[in-house]
Input
Amino acid sequence: VIGGMIGEVASGHAYVNPGDYPKPERIPMGLLGAKMSKDKSGYFKIDHIYSGAVYRSELRSPLTEPGMNISEGDFITAIDGQSLKDVDNIYKLLVGKAGKLVELTVNKSAADGGRKVVVKPIADEYPLEHYEWVMRNIRTVEEKSGGKVGYIYIPDMGPEGLNEFARWYYPQLDKEALIIDDRANGGGNISPMVIERLLRKVYRMTMYRNSNQNGTIPEGTHTGPKVLLINKYSASDGDLFPWSFKANNLGTVIGTRTWGGIVGISGSLPYMDGTDVRVPFFTNYDAATGQWIVENHGVDPDILLDNDPIKEYAGEDQQLDKAIETALQQIKDRKPLPKTPAPRTFKDLGLPEIK
Output
């Protein structure tokens, strides 16, 4: 009933979540960070292994740990000594195994037996899948632009999003253009920090003796076109980011209209049964016009383009391809920063030349 009443308010970030109610116990499924299929031999073939990354624990991919020596195309023939030949679903033997040591028998061929390894399955493969998607986008942009365009994905506007922006923004300052991906951004409150970085303009250059590398003042400044990707899942501060991007004329926005909810919330009042009620009570408006912005409409792109679901499932990202095309077109009008001038002479200094 309360949820229905909230819907009539037409205000973002108004929620009610129940507190004390019956719910089933969740048993963590052990996941191996891989895609597998049932082979005709009865064993399970490893079709794909998520590469993961070593710098974050949630990106740990179990089958890539040191000493595993497991490759795509190998077969898992047994788990904890139990043969998989007559098991229809490998996950039946991984129920409750997340975070626990499990013995796998791995064979290069679809035959009984093999080498035994001990792995620690994880409870969630989404971070691995998401990381692989981001890395694939980086490679796609690199290859299709000939290395001229950089790519940055910002998953939210919280600590995670700020970390990801910093991780990929600074190493790509030498790119001639940048694509910033705000699609499915879950919101937060750090978009002003990102906008501030993107607004920086170079007003002074630095050089160093015996080096052909130049620096910029302010530091950490990118010079060149910027393209922003958005979709209907760009929400909250993920709405405000593209609005601010457009308001500051930072570049071209491509995709579909954003979610449209920027009336903000704080913490819930305390309820005895743990019920969570969020009441929105602050928002933003345009400093130039004094008018309300974004709420119940979202941010419209400059170029309206939605991804075809079938093509997207097949690996084709039409929005990203359009962003690459747009960035490459705009690079043609880019004015590069000046290189170090020729050394000054005595004549330049108003002194007589030495003969």
Observations:
- The first helix runs from residue 2 to 9.
- Residues 30 and 91 are 7 Å apart (CA to CA).
